[in-house]
Design brief:
With about 475 residues, the chain is α+β, with helices and mostly antiparallel strands. Helices cover about 25% and strands about 30% of the residues. Strands 4-6-2-1-8-11-10 form a 7-stranded mixed sheet. The longest helix is centred in the N-terminal third of the chain and has 29 residues.
């Protein structure tokens, strides 16, 4: 019951935010004819080498609507079942024209291997969507004419399944959209099912876990399917995979599924939704990297900054989330410019620290530079070194023994992890490293920049000037 109460409170937070968001988006956007809710009924016929889809959209507004066909779809057309039921489809098949017909039935084909689907195969993003809308309710009918049997899963609740002489039929129906289909040859048992989730497992779950899950009574919760498998598979929309079924795993799977359904993480690293979910639910979720980043931010933020940060995350719902947008939000929340998320996106599994940047424009010998970054770290001021060196007539590269800098008359090597550097083949011992790496960028401390490369740094309230002081010798 502790798990049920914990998960219940988390999802109430998420769904409360989502309901408020949906209300505002619907009321604001619908008046501009840009956002709509509709229903859909999708009929899928699986034949050798293809899926034939008849897609009925209903409760449509009178305004013109763009269509996003599945990328792999072919033979896009008005449904042959009812020629009069897609009279709003334009000649280019790119959208529906303005009209009073509230239902439109379209058809398309999704090619698959002529050898048939592979067991455990996921067909992703195979259904038509509307760019400025979201389905309120979806029904999917799957008719398998190949006699391959097996089990279909969409993430929606399964309503009916029949094996007949010529075909196998399965029906799914529930709230929200569906994007993908999953098929496996050997059927798995439903070890738990209710309005919120269906668990497909190898063995029955414990009575305690079943009791905890039965205690969940959630509103506006989009059903998910969770499939136990030892093979590494990536989730697809409302179809989730897990190598084990336990309270902690299910809690995280369900929360992240909700976040993925409400936000668009198209190009971000996998830890980004984990960080977003952790702040929205006041949990620490995800990989070691995500958890360390969460700790860094929580340790720095005060209560007011944290509240502003969370409010900004809530406002991103329904929109695409990128590391740049998160950096902008974090900078606004802290009133200090930072590239924390972008630096970590370019740093693999390693953690880039929370660094703050100087907002003033940088000039080199009177010319403004757009790609020079100035950051603060442990009381030190550091400059992104590569663009500065290029303007000063040097070339730089990372080599097998450190960071190399050369010009016509001068050469440097900085081992990075040893207390010395080499200048024109002479070794010089040092106490502090002149050059450091954060994310995928190299930086040089201001004092070393002045000392080694014959420049002065002049600062005013409005700008930073880097000026050469003498010719090299």
């Amino acid at each position: 019951m502790k798990f049920a109460a914990s998960l219940f409170s988390i999802l109430l937070v998420i769904n409360g935010v989502m309901l408020a968001f949906q209300y505002h988006v619907y009321s604001d956007q619908l008046s501009e004819d840009e956002f709509l809710h509709y229903n859909q009924d999708i009929d899928v016929v699986y034949q050798k080498g293809k899926l034939i889809v008849h897609h009925r959209l209903s409760s449509l507004p009178e305004e013109s609507i763009k269509l996003i066909w599945p990328a792999k779809s072919i033979k896009k057309a008005c449904s042959s079942d009812d020629k009069n039921n897609c009279n709003r489809l334009n000649k280019t098949l790119t959208g529906l024209q303005k009209g009073k017909t509230e239902e439109q039935t379209l058809s398309y084909v999704i090619p698959v291997s002529k050898k048939g689907l592979k067991s455990g195969q996921i067909l992703r993003n195979i259904f038509l969507t509307l760019p400025k809308g979201t389905p309120v309710h979806t029904t999917v009918h799957i008719t398998d004419e190949t006699h391959t049997g097996g089990q279909w899963i969409t993430g929606l609740p399964e309503i009916d399944s029949k094996k007949m002489v010529l075909v196998q039929y399965t029906m799914f129906s529930g709230n929200g959209p569906v994007t993908s289909l999953y098929w496996q040859k050997n059927k798995m048992k439903k070890v738990f099912t209710n309005d919120q989730m269906t668990l497909y497992g190898k063995n029955n779950i414990s009575g305690d876990l079943s009791k905890s899950l039965k205690g969940l009574e959630l509103e506006d919760f989009e059903h998910v399917a969770i499939i136990e498998t030892n093979q590494k598979r990536h989730s697809a929309g409302r179809i989730l995979f897990t190598s084990e079924i336990n309270e902690k795993t299910l809690e995280q799977k369900v929360i992240l599924s909700q976040i993925h359904q409400k936000y668009k993480f198209n190009t971000t690293p996998s830890w980004v939704p984990e960080v977003v979910a952790s702040f929205l639910t006041e949990r620490t979720l995800g990989t070691a990297k995500a958890q360390k980043m969460i700790g860094i931010l929580k340790n720095y933020m005060n209560q007011d900054q944290l509240a502003e940060w969370k409010k900004g995350l809530e406002d991103m719902q329904g929109k695409e989330v990128t590391t740049t947008k998160l950096d902008n939000l974090l900078s606004d929340s802290l009133s200090l410019k930072t590239s924390f998320f972008n630096m970590n996106a370019n740093n693999g599994k390693n953690i880039a620290p929370l660094l703050f940047e100087d907002n003033r424009p940088i000039y080199i010998n009177g010319l403004q530079q757009n790609n020079v970054q100035v950051i603060f770290k442990d009381g030190r001021i550091l400059y992104s070194i590569k663009p500065i060196l290029k303007k000063l007539g040097y070339t730089s590269k990372v080599g097998p023994h450190g960071f190399y800098i050369t010009s016509e008359t001068r050469s440097f090597r900085f081992p990075m992890d040893e207390p010395f550097y080499v200048y024109n083949e002479h070794r010089y011992d040092i106490v502090s490293q002149p050059i450091e790496k954060y994310g995928n960028q190299y930086y040089i401390e201001e004092a070393w920049l002045v000392r080694l490369f014959f420049v002065n740094v002049e600062k005013s309230d409005k700008r930073i000037d880097i000026k050469t002081t003498k010719n090299e010798s």
